[in-house]
Amino acid sequence: MRSLADSTPPIALGALDGRYRAAVAPLVDHLSEAALNRQRVNVEVEWLIHLTTAGAVPGVRTLTDAETAALRDIPAQFDTADVAELADIERETVHDVKAVEYYLKRRLPQIVGADDAVGLSELVHFGCTSEDINNLSYALMVQGATRQVWLPRAKALVDQIAAMAKELADVPLLAHTHGQPATPTTMGKELAVLAHRLRRQLRRIEGAEYLGKINGATGTYGAHVEAVPDTDWIETSRTFVESLGLQWNPLTTQIESHDWQAELYSDIARFNAILHNLATDVWTYISMGYFAQSRGQGTVGSSTMPHKVNPIRFENAEANLEVSNGLLDVLGRTLVTSRLQRDLTDSSMQRNIGTAYGHSLLAIDNVGRGLSGLDAVPAAMAADLDANWEVLGEPIQSAMRALGAQGVPGMEQPYERLKELTRGRRITEADLRDFVKGLGLPAEVEERFLALTPATYVGLAPQLVRYLDA
C-alpha cells in the first residue's frame, strides 16, 4: 500500500483535526501550538514594555506610544509565516522559548532604531526562566479558550435544555428507579434537574482563577535582585501579572504550581459527567419511545434497516465526554506535582489541554444537535403510565399513615396492605378503585383517590421547573 504519511496537504492523525475539525476549530486560536507561540510572543512583548514603563532597570528609556503600539502589533499580526520563522529559529536553538526571544530581537531595530535596539534587546526575556513565559502564556490561553469558546457553547446548550424543560414541564412521565416503574414525574422536571446541575458547574467554571508568576529560575528573584538591587521586584512582578488579567501567585518554585488548572479541569470534567448522564438518559427515553427523532433530514439511520434513525448524536457525545474526562483527569493529577523545584512532565502534559477541551466541545455540539432533532411523544409516556396503576400504592398508603396518626380507625398496616395488592404484579384501574372503596377512608379522601390517575400523580413537578430561573 502507498504511504499516507507524506500526503500533501498533510492528513490529520487525530479525529479533532480531521473528521470533526469544524466543530472544534475555534479552539485553535487558543490551545494550539501556534497559539502557544503567539502568547509567548505577547508575554515577552508585554514584559519588555512593563520593564521600561515601570522603570525597573534604571537608565533605560521609556518606549514611545508608537513603539509600544508597534511591539503589540507583533503578536496581533502573528500568522503562519511567523510560525514558520519560529520553527526555523528553533531548529538552531533547540529551545522553543529561546527561539521566541531571538524572534523578537530580530524585530527591535525596525521598531526602536538600530542604536537603541542594542540596549533594549537585552531586556527581552530579562530575568526570566522559560517557565515565567510559559505559565503566563498557558494561563492566558486556557482563560481565552474557556471564556471565549467553551463557556459560550456550554451555556447555549444548557439554555437549550432549560427551554425544553419548561416546554415539557407539564408532560407526565412514568419514572424508573432501579429500572422499575416508580412514582410519576414530568419530563420537564427531569430535564430541569439536569439543567440545574449543569448550571451549577458553569457558575463554578465562570468563577475560576487563572494564576501566574514571573519570579525567575527557582521563584526567588535571585538574578533580578543581584542585577538591579534597588528595584522592588515583587511589586514589579505582581503588577505585571495582574496587568495581563491574571491573579498573581507570590509563592512558587521554578514553575507556577498549576493547582488552578487542576481545579478548573475538575469542574469541567464534572460538567462533562453530568452531560454524559443527560446523554444516556435521553438515549434511554428515545429507546422507550418517549422522544421521536426528526426524520426527513437526509440522514441514513442504518446501512441495512431503512426504518431506523439511530441516536448517534448522543452516542457520539458519550464517547467524546469519556475521552475528554480521561484527559482532564490525568491533567489534574499530574500537573499539581513536580520533582523538587522543576521537572518537565508538565510541559508535555499541557500540550494535551486543547485535545481535552476539543472532545468536550465536540460532545456539547453533538448533544445540542441531538436535542434539536427530538420531538416529545406524550402519547407513549401516557401509555406507560396507564399500564402501571400500581404506582398509586405509594400515595394511598401514605394517606392511610397520616389518617392513622390522626386517630382514624381502620388504617392499620397500610404499607403491608398495599404491598399485598401491588407487589410483583400489575393491577388495573378497576382493581385499584375497588381496593380504595374498601378501605373505609373518609369520604373526601376516598373521592380524591378515586379521581387520581398515574398521569395526575406528579406532585409539584411542574412547579419545580420554575426554580431554573431562581
Question: Can you describe this structure?
Answer:
- The protein has helices at residues 21-24, 28-31, 33-53, 65-76, 80-93, 96-112, 114-120, 130-167, 187-206, 222-227, 233-243, 259-287, 312-335, 345-350, 353-372, 378-386, 393-405, 414-422, 429-437, 443-451, 461-464, and strands at 172-177, 180-186, 211-212, 247-248, 291-293, 374-376.
- It is mainly alpha-helical and 470 residues long.
- A hairpin with a 2-residue loop joins strand 1 (172-177) and strand 2.
- The radius of gyration is 31 Å and the shape is elongated.
- The two termini are 62 Å apart.
- The model has no long low-confidence stretch (mean pLDDT 93).
| Proportion of helical residues | 55-70%
Q: Rg from C-alpha positions? A: 31 Å
Q: Give the percentage of residues in beta strands.
A: under 5%
- What top-tier CATH class of the largest domain fits best? Mainly Alpha
Number of beta strands: 6
Second CATH tier, the architecture of the largest domain: Up-down Bundle
CATH topology of the largest domain: Fumarase C, Chain A, domain 2
Spans of at least 5 consecutive residues with low confidence: none
* Major β-sheet annotation: 2 strands, antiparallel
Order of helices and strands: HHHHHHHHEEHEHHEHEHHHEHHHHHH
Mean pLDDT: 93
Number of helices: 21
The fourth-level CATH homologous superfamily of the largest domain is Fumarase/aspartase (Central domain)
Shape: elongated
Distance between the termini: 62 Å
Count of spatially separate domains: 3
Q: Give the helix/strand class.
A: mainly alpha
Spatial sequence of strands, sheet with the most strands: 1-2
Keywords: Lyase, Purine biosynthesis
InterPro entries: Fumarase/histidase_N, Fumarate_lyase_CS, Fumarate_lyase_fam, Fumarate_lyase_N, L-Aspartase-like, Pur_lyase, PurB_bact, PurB_C
Pfam families: ASL_C (PF08328), Lyase_1 (PF00206)
Catalytic activity: (2S)-2-[5-amino-1-(5-phospho-beta-D-ribosyl)imidazole-4-carboxamido]succinate = 5-amino-1-(5-phospho-beta-D-ribosyl)imidazole-4-carboxamide + fumarate; N(6)-(1,2-dicarboxyethyl)-AMP = fumarate + AMP
